[in-house]
Design brief:
Number of strands: 0
Number of domains: 1
Radius of gyration: 13 Å
Number of helices: 5
Oligomer: single chain
Structural class: mainly alpha
Shape: elongated
Length: about 100
């Protein structure tokens, strides 16, 4: 039987905060709102480095939409989509780090 992974905005933030903060050139976000802001900064920095930013942009949008959702099911779907779009961000951050 497969287990379904449940995501929260805070668990996503905690999972990716260090690498996102590095690329954003800031301290790790302690709130989801700050994390979303950092994702937009990361998108700009990745874009300047000529990285594809579609997944980072989508993750920021999904997290923002999830934060505003009052429907539990919708929020769960949005958080899963945000997490799915951040799957490659650690590798991207490592490549960015290597460029610096």
């Amino acid at each position: 039987m497969s287990t379904k992974q449940t995501f929260t905005a805070d668990s996503i933030r905690a999972r990716y905060a260090a690498n996102i903060a590095f690329v954003a050139e800031e301290e790790p976000a302690t709130t989801v709102s700050d994390f979303i802001d950092q994702l937009w900064t990361v998108s700009e920095n990745f874009n300047m480095a000529r990285f594809d930013t579609d997944e980072v942009d989508a993750a920021a949008t999904y997290l923002n939409d999830a934060a505003g959702s009052t429907d539990e099911n919708e929020r769960a779907v949005l958080l899963k989509r945000a997490a799915d779009n951040l799957v490659h961000v650690d590798n991207m951050a490592d490549e960015y780090r290597d460029m610096c």
